[in-house]
Amino acid sequence: MISRIHGRARSWDPNAQSVEIDVGGISYEVQLPAYAWRALDPHPDTLELFIYYHVPDRNPTPVLVGFLRPTEREFFRKFMRVHGMGPTTARRALATSISTIARWIEDEDKAALRRLPGIGARQAGQIVAELRGKVLEEALLVDEHYPGLADSPAPERERALSDAIEALVALGYGRREAKAWVGEAAGALPKPDSEVPAADTEVVLRAVFDLLADRT
Predict the structure, then answer these.
(1) Mean local confidence (pLDDT), 173-187
(2) How many CA atoms lie within 13 A of 157 on its CB side?
(3) I need a labelling partner for 32 at 20 to 30 A (CA). Which of 22, 53, 55, 125 fits?
(4) CA dist., res. 33 & res. 5, Å (int)
(5) Strand partners, 28
(6) Which residues have CB under 8 Å from 193's CB, separation 6+?
(7) Cα–Cα distance between 37 and 170 in angstroms, integer?
(8) Per the omega criterion (within 30 degrees of 0), is the bond before 192 cis?
(9) In the predicted model, is pLDDT for residue 198 greater than 80?
(10) Where in the chain does DSSP place strands (E)?
(11) Contact by Cβ (8 Å): 77, 107
């Protein structure tokens, strides 16, 4: 089974949102979710994609779906297993970043989920019912949810959020609770840019404890 492809991009098909990647003289056609297609514009000459390998029941031709990171592929695996979804519908639905969709799920924002291609009211409810509480880690991803990723201190922010979760676990809190609290607190933190530095772990923890204090 193919799990990762690294090679030269031979051609890009905007209609199918797919790319042919040449690896040692063999070309693989990889389909991309819309968010990944957008993130790869301008198109690089070489690229590495993490692959979900799927063989449809009615068509024995394998389908390769590409993702920028392993965590995004794992989210896709969860997403496509929602009742009534499947790989094709799931790929088409990923029109915005993984972190954004995961946050909508955790916030039970069914109206936002219905804006995804192919997702109706019933399917949005099913997504929330099956995945809420299971995509907390993806909701904290640093991806297109944060504008200007390449030029911003977003990686430092991601590290601070991750370190805050580990600090809470070390203090005796459950990991699931820690992820939920950090995710909620992160939404209230200013987005980093050239004038606002990325929040460090101490700032994130302070925001979490302020959040918990407001509930007591």
Answers:
(1) 81
(2) 23
(3) 125
(4) 16
(5) 21
(6) 148, 152
(7) 39
(8) no
(9) no
(10) 4-13, 18-23, 26-31, 46-54, 63-67
(11) no
